Write the structure tokens for this entry.
Amino acid sequence: MKRSELIRWLRRNGAELIREGRKHSIWGRTQLRTQVPRHTEIVDLLARKICKDLEIPFKGN
């Protein structure tokens, strides 16, 4: 999955960018937090984990 697709999906489901790190961006939703790496391609397994951390349904291809 492309990083831009994942970011778009997170925003549509209420997640917000909290801060930018060197290698990761920190995203949150209410009290939940997770890291999103800055790779152009993110493996579906990792994208699924990011969505699970934020309690967002996973959007598969």
